[in-house]
Structure formats: structure tokens, C-alpha cells
Specification:
Oligomer: single chain
CATH class of the largest domain: Alpha Beta
Helix content: 55-70%
Mean pLDDT: 79
Largest sheet: 6 strands, mixed
CATH architecture of the largest domain: 3-Layer(aba) Sandwich
Number of helices: 23
Amino acid sequence: MLKRFVAPYKRYLAGSVFLNIFSAIFNVFSFSLIIPILQILFKMDTTVYHMLPWNTPDMGIKELALNNFYALAQQMINTYGGSTTLLILGLFLGVTTALKCACYFGSSAVMIPLRTGIVRDIRTQVYDKLMGLPMGFYTDERKGDIVARMSGDVNEVEYSIMSSLDMLIKNPILILIYFATLIALSWQLTLFTVTVVPLLAWGMSALGKTLKRDSLASQAKWSDIMTQLDETLGGLRVIKAFIAEDKMSKRFEDTCNDFRNIYGKVQVRQVSAHPVSEFLGTCMIMLVLWFGGTLILNDKAIIDAPTFIFYMIILYSVLQPLKEFSRAGYNIPKGLASMERIDKILLTENNIKEVKDPKPLDSFDDSIEFKGVCFQYGEGSKTVLKDIDLKIEKGKTIALVGQSGSGKSTLVDLIPRYHDVVSGSIAIDGKDLRDVRIKDLRALIGNVNQEAILFNDTIFNNIAFGVEGATMEQVVAAAKIANAHDFIMEKENGYDTMIGDRGGKLSGGQRQRISIARAILKNPPILILDEATSALDTESERLVQEALDRLTSDRTTIAIAHRLSTIRNADEICVMHEGRIVERGRHEELLALGGYYKKLNDMQAL
């Protein structure tokens, strides 16, 4: 599941493997000095050893290495005395331990760029994927759930899997080298040990079977918490207006309690990993100690006492990586559960696809044409647009009017390919929208929406948003055309004023004029206005309408309007009803028809 993220960091893995091998080797060598130290202290071995050639026949490498090592120790005792020899061996133990610790530190440190890099890559890939997914994806997903996957789930992957990567690389190396040492010391004792180890693995696996399932449930509940928090922050005015604070608090508390209960089960299983592995490991040591001690006490000379002590030290060293494996066996399922939720975003198919060889689209010269366009948001859902035929010629202003839910916003969303048509086609200058690059298409289109979408940044950066290299002179000129310059200069920091979350420090009219200035600066040949003045007071509407008149004077405009007074001068008005264009013409022509448009006009005249 994480292989695709590890590939760019293979060199760090190689470095970790290399350093872990040397760490284990130095560890074995440092512990091996226990044998001659004990023999010197307690005079347990009276054999006289002589240095032998390494090609001595009838002797294995193990026997030759031990013989020559003991011979060297005896020579040192004869030359320097027992006390000095112990000091030299102690210094050698210190050096090998220092080298072991250095390699251990290096193996962990070299993994840090890998761990942090993978987590960064996951975050950026999720963000980039969210940027690339079509608008339809967000109608089916809760924003709080997406935030939870981006934050909590990615953090869980970092904590559970990334922190375990070091164990997964280091521990197999340690276990392999330690077991090889155990076999070299006594294959009989090691055979007995191997029969006990599966009990340790079985005990840990029996406890961890349900951890992944519970982790998925806990992360889902965390998403519910994030969703409720997002809804609360976005709907504070309504909550306070309807005195629903207690209701929302109770709802949030219930969700938190559900999360606490499920997460508590996960934590109980997780904290049980150490004590259970500690107990089972002690049982294993106890059994091996009994078996080996019995052989030594009964003079079964498969191993002498100092070597048996060394054997037990190495065996105990095996326990630590086994315990860490058991801890990883708990952490990793939690991380995998979170990775599954992240992959639901990363592996989501984007149905807005680009062709391999797109047709060039550098300008808008002729018209936008809808031919037999039908659209629905999903299989089995209601058809939103039915058999739309519409031609929008360059330089013309086309207005879309109709009751809410008639398909006006959906129709204009098809032009920048926020969605793709189910049947029929939309062409710009005779080129099907599906045959051109999305970036080229959207570069020709500007949007001014009913809700001005601004960012928590300066006024300058909001106006210059999406326009690379915009100068202050260009931004000021756009603001003047949008009737925004005067109120901007009244601010303490002028164009460097921070406007707050979603432009919360500005009035509705001010936000809308900033949005218009942004569209003016982009200077697109095609402009989409989605009820740009419907939520404004009379004075703000006048200022915004003046700005819109300047903006639309020399470009192709598709305007959605509820207030018919704002589109009386449109070149063509299309009246939509239940996903169809039922009437079209100029203002006076539609009034003369006495149909839907006249009814809408008469209702607004009351």
C-alpha cells in the first residue's frame, strides 16, 4: 500500500540496512567478550591454547576463531597480567559498544528523511488530488470527512506506520544475525528455543486481529467530529438565531462519546502489546534457562557455563526486536486502516479526462454552442438538463432566468467542464470541450458568483489571484473599474489589508467588488455571472452593477439572474423550466409572449 511512496527514498533504506547490519555485528562482538572476561576472572578454563593457522585441517572456522581468540587472551595475560588484560578487553568492549551505538543512531537518523518525506508526499498528493477532482466529487463527500483524512488519517499513518518502518528494517536484521550467533553457539539449544518462539507470535496475533477494524471505525467517528465542527463554524449565525446551542452541543457530545468508546478499545489493545510480549518473552527465557541449565548441571557438555551466559545474553537481545515486532503488529494495522481511507481519495477516478492530443485553444473567436445537451449528476439520479440547444455568439450577452432548480447553474458549470455532459456536446469555436486542454479552456473564462469566494489573504493577493506577475498598477486599475479602489484606500493598510476568513472583514458589496476586480484583472473573453447582485443592498447593487456593466461591455457574457431588471438589455434571454429552455428572446419579445417570463416579471413588479 505504501510501496509507491517509498520508491523515491530507496537510498535511505539501503543506508539503514547497511548500518543495522554493522550495529548487530558490533553488538555480537561486544557481548562475545563476556566469555574470556569470565574465564579470566574465575579461572574456569585451564586449557593451554596455541595460535593455529587459519587453514588448519579438520577444524571448522568457529573452532579456529575461538582457539585463536583464547590463545591471544592467554598471551596477553602472560605478558601483561590478568588485571591489565581485563582492562584491555574492557576498553575493546567500550570501543565495540561505541561503534554499535553509532551505527544504531545512524540507522535511525537516516530513516528520518524517508519518514518525513513520505508523509509530506502523502499530504501533497492528497491535496493535488483534491484540486484535480471534479466538482461532482464534493457533492457526495462531507467536507469534515475530507479534512479528517487530510489531517487525522495522515497523522495516524505517520505515527503508526512511519514510526514502525525503522523496526521493520532493523529487527529482521537483528533477529537473523542473533539467531545465526545462537546456532553457532549451540544448535541444540537453538532448536529448543525455536520451538518456543511461535508461542510468542501466536499470543500477539491473537490479540491484534480486531485492531484494524476498530481503527477504521474510530477514524470514521473522527470524521464525524470534524464534519460537525465544520458545520458549526459555518452555521453559527443560524445556530444562535434559533437558540440551538444546547442541541448542537448535545449532538457533538454524543459523537465525541462514540469516538471515545471506540478509540478506547483500540488503545486498550495497543497498550496490552508491551506487557503481553514481556510476559511471553520471560516465559521463553525461563524455559531455555531451565533446559540449558539442566544440561550443564548434568554435565551434558554441549556448552560450557560462560558460553551459556553469552548464549542467554544474545537470546535476551533477540527478545527486544521481537517485542518491537509485536508493537509494530499493533501500530501498523491502525496505520493501514487510515491509509485505506486516504486511498479512497487518492484512488478516486476522475471522470473529467483530458485527451492525449488536445486541440489548441488560445483564443475565443466565434461562438459557444450547445447541441442536444443532457446532464444528470449520477446514474439513476434525476436528469437535470434535457436536450439543450443554445448558441452563444462572441460579444453577446445571454441571460438565463427561471425558478430555482431549473438547471441554470448546472448549465453554466458545463462550460468550464466542472462536469461533463451525459449526452450531446458543447463546442467552443467548433471544438468539442472534451478535445481541448482544461487549462486552456478555463483560461478563457472568468467567474463572478453570488457568493464572493475570497481567501484569508491581502486585498492585493485576492485581486491578483490566478494572474502571475500582476503589478500594483494593474491591480489598482482593475479595482477602479470595479468601484473598489475608494473603499480599499480607506482601509488602514490599503491593498495590504488582510480580509479575514472568506473575506469576513468586508461587507457583502465590498467582497463582490473585489471578486469583480479579480475577474477584470484576468481579462477573460468569456464571463460567467451567477446571480452576482442578488444578495446585495440597493446601494451596493448599484455600485456592483456599474462595475459589471464595465466588465461585460466588450466580452461574451452568460448571466444567471433572479432580478430581471439586471438583464433587460441582454441580447438574448433564455427562460429555463425543469431542465429545458422553454422560451427565448429579448425582454420585450418575452413579455409579449405572455408565458413563464411574463409571470416572473409580473411577480417581481408587485
